[in-house]
Design goal:
Layout (H helix, E strand, L loop, with lengths): L18 H19 L3 H7 L4 H10 L17 H35 L2 H13 L4 E4 L15 E5 L2 E12 L6 E7 L11 E7 L4 E6 L10 E12 L11 H37 L1 E2 L2 E2 L4 H29 L5 H25 L11 H8 L9 H15 L3
Parallel strand pairs: 1-4
Antiparallel strand pairs: 2-3, 3-7, 4-5, 6-7, 8-9
Helix pairs in contact: 1-4, 4-5, 4-6, 6-7, 6-8, 6-9, 7-8, 8-9, 8-10
Length: 397
C-alpha cells in the first residue's frame, strides 16, 4: 500500500480578475436571472422540478467551469467573483446554485489534488458541463464523523472494487460522476489515514436510490448512491496515492464553506429585499408598516446581518484567493451567514404577517431553504468548534 507521507496538493496559483471583466460577467448573470430564472422559480420550487432549461443555460454561460482553471477549459474565476455570483443567484433561488456548487467542489478536488493526467482527462469535461456531478461523502451512519464511513475500495489488479452506500448526495440522480470518499484501509489507525477519494463515474455496480422528499432545496435532486462490486480503474484514485482522501475531501470543504456562506448571504439579502418592499406597501393604522418602530427594529437588524455576512464571506474568499489557510475565516462566514439567512427569513415571515404562510408569496421558500445552510458543509455546531480551535491556536497563552 502506498504511503500517505506527503501532501500531494498542487501549488496554489493566486487568482485575480479585472474589475471590468467581473462587472461584465455579473451583468450577464443579473440579466439571466431577471429574464430566465425569476419567471420560473415558483413553478420549479412548488413542483420540485429539475430545471433542465436553466441547466443548459448555465452550461452555456460556463458556470460548470466557473472556478476551474482556464488551462482546463474553465473560467478560472477567483473565489470572490464566484461568491458574488452565488450570492446573487441565491438571492432569487438558492437551490439552483447547488447544481453547480457541488459539481465545482468535485472539480476542485481533482484540480487541487489530482495528477496532471487526471486534470487533463476530467476537468475539460467538468468545465463544459458534459460531465456533471458532486461530492459523495456522507453515509447513513457517518455525516459529521466522516472517518466512520464504511464504503470500502479493495485493490484488485489495475482496478478498485467498491462496496457501500452514500446518502443525501446532491445531484445524485441527474449527475453522472462523483468524488467518492472510501476506505482503502479500513483498519488504519488513526482512521483518516485509511481514507481515499476516487473519481467515480456511473457504471455497472453503481445504482441510485429514490429521490429524497425535502422541506426545501427543491428542484435539485438529493439521493442515495449504492455501490455493489462497482469497479473503477486504479488511475481514478485522486492524486494516485492512497490515504489522502480525508484531507482532500475536507480541503475542498473550505471552498464549499465559502459557497454555503455566499448562499446564506443571498438568502439573507433576498429575505431583506422582499421584507423591505412589503413593509413599504402594507399599511396598518393609516401608515406603511415600515414606519412602525417594531418593524423598523426588525429591518435595522436584518440589513446589518446581511451586510456583516457579506463582508465575512468576502474576507474568507479573499483569503482563499491569496492561497492562505482560511478554515477559520470560511467557518466564521459560513456560520454567521447561514444563521443570518435563518434569522432574516424568519423576521421577513413576521413582517409579512399572515401572508407569509401563503404559497402565493415567495418568502416561505426562503424560510424553508435557509435552515439547510446551517447543516451542509459542516454543521454550525462544528463550525464554532473549528473557529474556536483555530482561534486558541493563534493566541497561545
Ligand atoms: C439537502 C441536503 C443535501 C446534502 N448534500 C450532500 C452532498 O452532496 N454530499 C454529501 O456528502 N453530503 C450531503 N449532505 C449531508 C450533510 O453533509 C450531512 O447531513 C451533515 O454533514 C450532517 O451529518 P448528519 O446528518 O449525519 O448529522 P450528524 O453527524 O448525525 O449530527 C447530528 C447533530 O449532532 C451534532 N454533532 C455531531 N457530532 C458532533 C460533535 N463532535 N460535536 C458537537 N456536535 C456534534 C451535529 O452538529 C448535529 O447537530 C446533504 C444533506 C442535506 C440535508
Amino acid at each position: 500500500m502506498a504511503s500517505a507521507a506527503q501532501d500531494p496538493a498542487r501549488e496554489f496559483i493566486p487568482r485575480t480578475i479585472d474589475p471590468d471583466d467581473e462587472r461584465a460577467f455579473m451583468d450577464a448573470i443579473e440579466k439571466w436571472v431577471e429574464g430566465e430564472v425569476k419567471p420560473v422559480v415558483m413553478e420549479h420550487d412548488h413542483g420540485d422540478i429539475w430545471p433542465e432549461k436553466l441547466v443548459h443555460q448555465m452550461a452555456e454561460m460556463g458556470l460548470f467551469g466557473a472556478t476551474i482553471g482556464q488551462e482546463y477549459g474553465g473560467l478560472g474565476l477567483p473565489a470572490t467573483t464566484y461568491a458574488k455570483i452565488v450570492t446573487y443567484v441565491s438571492s432569487y433561488w438558492m437551490a439552483l446554485t447547488g447544481i453547480f456548487n457541488s459539481h465545482l467542489i468535485m472539480a476542485a478536488a481533482v484540480e487541487r489534488f489530482g495528477t496532471e493526467e487526471q486534470r487533463q482527462e476530467w476537468l475539460p469535461k467538468f468545465a463544459s458541463g458534459e460531465i456533471r456531478g458532486g461530492l459523495a461523502l456522507t453515509e447513513p451512519n457517518a455525516g459529521t464523523d466522516l472517518q466512520a464511513i464504511r464504503t470500502v475500495a479493495t485493490r484488485d489488479g489495475d482496478d478498485y472494487v467498491i462496496n457501500g452506500t452514500k446518502t443525501w448526495i446532491s445531484n445524485g440522480i441527474k449527475g453522472s460522476c462523483f468524488a467518492l470518499l472510501v476506505k482503502t484501509d479500513p483498519k488504519a489507525d488513526p482512521r483518516y489515514k485509511g481514507m481515499s477519494l476516487m473519481i467515480a463515474p456511473k457504471g455497472e455496480g453503481f445504482t441510485v436510490g429514490k429521490k429524497f422528499e425535502k422541506l426545501g432545496y427543491k428542484g435539485i435532486d438529493s439521493a442515495e448512491l449504492m455501490f455493489d462490486n462497482y469497479r473503477i480503474p486504479a488511475k481514478n484514485l485522486i492524486g494516485g496515492v492512497e490515504g489522502h482522501g480525508f484531507f482532500q475531501a475536507t480541503g475542498g470543504l473550505e471552498l464549499g464553506r465559502i459557497n454555503v456562506a455566499a448562499r446564506g448571504v443571498g438568502l439573507a439579502k433576498g429575505s431583506l429585499r422582499l421584507a423591505t418592499e412589503y413593509a413599504q406597501l402594507r399599511e396598518t393604522m393609516g401608515k406603511p408598516i415600515c414606519e412602525h418602530q417594531a418593524i423598523q427594529l426588525k429591518l435595522g437588524e436584518m440589513v446589518t446581518r446581511a451586510r456583516a455576512s457579506e463582508l465575512l464571506t468576502m474576507d474568507a474568499a479573499e483569503t482563499y484567493d491569496r492561497g492562505e489557510r482560511c478554515d477559520m475565516q470560511a467557518g466564521m462566514a459560513k456560520f454567521f451567514a447561514s444563521e443570518s439567512a435563518v434569522r432574516n427569513s424568519e423576521e421577513a415571515m413576521r413582517i409579512y404577517g399572515g401572508y407569509a404562510y401563503s404559497k402565493e408569496y415567495e418568502i416561505e421558500r426562503y424560510y424553508r431553504d435557509a435552515l439547510l445552510m446551517c447543516i451542509g458543509e459542516g454543521t454550525n455546531e462544528m463550525q464554532r468548534m473549528i473557529i474556536s480551535k483555530q482561534w486558541v491556536k493563534q493566541n497561545p497563552a
